[in-house]
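Sat 14:20. Reprocessing the chain from the morning session after the first attempt stalled halfway. Input below, unchanged.
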Amino acid sequence: MKDINLPATLLEAVIPSLPATAYYVPNFVKLAEEEVLLDKINSAPLPTWRHLSHRRLQTYPSPLSPQNTLLASPLPSWLYEPVIPRLLSLQIVAGADAGNIFADSPHRAPNHVLVNEYSPGQGIFPHEDGSAYHHVVTTISLGSHIVLDIYAKKDDGSGEREAEPRWRILQEPRSLLITTGELYRDYLHGIRETEVDKDLNEHGVANWNLLGRKENFEGGERRRGTRLSLTFRDVLKVKNLGRGFGFLGKGCR
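Finished this time. Tokens:
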């Protein structure tokens, strides 16, 4: 079992067949760190979970307002360490002045984490992440693999997606996937509702040559387990409670 083995720069982690730009880093968190994260998530009080029709989720430090605004609050320490310092240590290119993937975001670091739980057979409809966030998405997979489908939009100007995905990204347990730029703005992503992922090979997986353990997918298919994704993003609009939401304290005792 490999421990973490971070690339010298993110250039080593680029998924070359995709539009600009996606990065894939296997073994981004240690097995022991994964166990701690899973324990913290699974031991959260039931009201922490929000139940949707096909999955359930947790949001830290809080959900966004209807105006896509985040109330200023720190992330829990168990989500901050070790993930965010390690994430910010990844330089895009070499050099003492080189920046990390959040160097040009408003808050220069993630301030929001969405935790999604996918049981075998569950997925999510193809979608865009929208305008509430800086155009960088960093996702850590825990517990099981998943295949992320990337869809292009039709050329007719309708904004609708093509029927079939252009690319597929295989996310191993404990891996990190970063999407940004054109891939963030102009494409949709989703997860098929299936219990077994197939066509897992160099022809069917865009990041095949970056995988940490190809041997786990010998035979070209793999049954899913329960997978939790941790999506770290920088919410653009942030308000302090005392400045923008002072009315919440009036009459609430």
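Confidence is low (pLDDT under 50) at residues 244-253.
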